[in-house]
Amino acid sequence: MMQRLMLTMIAAVTVALLAIDSDTADAQESGPEPIAQWQFDGNALDATGNGHDATPLGGVEFAGGAAVMDGTDDAFQVADAPDLSPAKAITVEAWWNAVDFTGSGNNGLVDKGFTSHTPPHYQYQLGVNGTGWPGGPNFGFSVTVDGTAVGARYDGWTPGQTYHLVGTYDGSEVRLYVNGALEASRAASGSISDYGQDLFIGRYTNLQDEGVHFLPGTIDQVTIWGRALSSDEVADLYKGPRTGEGEQPANETDAEEMPDDEPEATAQQNGDDDGSGFPWWLIVVILVIVAALLLLLLFLRRRRREEPEA
Ligand SMILES: [Ca+2]
Predict the structure, then answer these.
(1) Count of domains observed in the chain
(2) CA of 34: how far to CAs of 86, 136, 237, in Å?
(3) How far is the centre of ligand 1, averaged over its atoms, from the C-alpha of 239 (Å)?
(4) How far apart are CA 28 and CA 108, in angstroms?
């Protein structure tokens, strides 16, 4: 009986340890947080709290939780900072609601440029060629590694459509994802060069002719990571909601939903609500301990019953 009790206790401890281990693994899979994120929900602040607030240029306006670019002189400027120049790997994400435009070459959606408009042109750039471009409309993601630009390109986009664009570099490939799917990749290796330029959203770094080098259309949720997101993470971003999407000045639905959401999130952090946010492994451990105590009680009662006969 005592042996069975010991085995039960060992099983309980093993289950608890396995549960804790799998929780830790889940947390590690999501990887480090973004370096910078501009959600454009009525402002150009860096939502990560890392201080990379963008300066709106040309009187850019915000609507529906996104930035509406006039294609004439609207853009955002972000001061250069060491963490905006990761060396080993990078991910650049942006949403763009496409509109017809001619432009001149690969207009910058997110552009951290070279020191002049000569090769390699960009430190990194997520860009758009216009419908009036001789080669036809396309998306491109370019990263300069050890001084040489390597670009992945996706041909064809349709005005009026909304596109989720993600470019990654992981030390072996430059990849371009469009609407959650990997559409283009190019082999590359080496460290990402750093040219110390400011970062621009909606414009080239070194060219700024009005109506030519500015990207029109609606831009939302521009995010930069210092690591290459996996294809699963990119697909999840595409499926996930954007902050402030379709935001109205006084949204009653949002106001009603808030009180329901907040207590749940708080309860999960504290682990003390009615059960919905309770860690499942803790429930298992408690059940096993209760079972073990019951077995111990039965064992002791049986011994007491047996003792007088002995
Ligand atoms: Ca937004």
Answers:
(1) 2
(2) 12, 33, 13
(3) 15
(4) 33
- Six-digit token string for 77: 């400027």
- Provide the whole-model pTM: 0.72
Provide the residue range defining the domain that includes 17. Answer: 2-27+279-309
What's the average pLDDT block by block, 10 residues per block, for the chain (310 residues)?
Answer: 52 47 42 94 97 97 97 97 98 97 90 96 97 90 98 96 98 98 98 98 92 95 98 96 65 36 34 42 63 77 67
Query: Tokens standing for 161?
Result: 């459509």
Give the per-residue pLDDT at 246.
Answer: 64
Measure 211 CA to ligand 1 centroid, in angstroms.
24
Say how many Å lie between the CA of residue 38 and the centre of ligand 1: 8
Is 160 in the same domain as 192? yes
Q: How far apart are CA 196 and CA 65, in angstroms?
A: 30
Pair (11, 55) in one structural domain:
no
3-class secondary structure, 17: helix
Ligand 1 centroid – CA 219 distance (Å): 8
Same domain, 288 and 200: no
> What pLDDT score was predicted for residue 247?
62
Judged on CB neighbours under 10 Å (0-12, 13-18, 19+), 260 is exposed
